[in-house]
Design goal:
This protein has 162 residues and is α+β, with helices and mostly antiparallel strands. The chain folds into 2 domains: 30 residues; 130 residues, no CATH class. It is 33% helix and 27% strand. The protein is built from 5 helices and 6 strands. A 6-stranded antiparallel sheet has the order 1-2-3-6-5-4. The longest helix has 26 residues. It starts with a helix and ends with a strand. About 8% of the residues have low confidence.
């Protein structure tokens, strides 16, 4: 009888360890992103975007206004994914410089929208109207796009990284 009791206790311990291990693994599978915002004021966001771009290229012109966030998915016990969303307002006279500083023109691209929505982010229909370029030279990421609006001064950026 004592052997049966000992075997039962070992089985229960094994089951508890297995349940704990599964719980820890699943805790890293939360589909809610952690969101990094880049400044409270327009001036702070402009400074952040200026620094990000200047790490890779000479700034093509002044940034008059900026909005930007980055969503991070996963990462606790598994891989992480990052979606970066930005909107820049630049001087109209500098738009040609901005375009020449972007990567190659692209015709195939994906659209993402931030998980919690943003008042300043564009719809898919609006994105379809943009002139799209690779984000690689400005942002160092191969996946995504830099889109130039027809107004001649608004630039949208979407990058994705693993």
């Amino acid at each position: 009888m004592p052997d049966l009791l000992l075997t039962k206790r070992k089985t229960m311990k094994t089951q508890l360890v297995l349940i704990l291990a599964i719980s820890i693994c699943l805790s890293g599978c939360d589909n809610s992103p952690s969101v990094n915002t880049f400044g409270e004021t327009s001036a702070e966001r402009v400074a952040v975007m200026t620094d990000i771009i200047k790490k890779r290229i000479s700034l093509p012109g002044s940034i008059l206004d900026a909005e930007c966030i980055e969503e991070k998915y996963g990462g606790l016990l598994g891989p992480s994914e990052y979606n970066f969303f930005a909107k820049l307002v630049v001087e109209k006279t500098a738009l040609a410089s901005w375009k020449s500083s972007a990567g190659e023109k692209i015709s195939s691209w994906d659209y993402f929208t931030p998980k919690n929505g943003l008042s300043w982010w564009l719809t898919r229909e609006q994105a379809d109207q943009l002139e799209m370029y690779s984000p690689k030279p400005m942002f160092g990421r191969s996946f995504g796009w830099v889109g130039f609006a027809a107004d001649g001064q608004t630039i949208y950026i979407l990058t994705h990284a693993w």
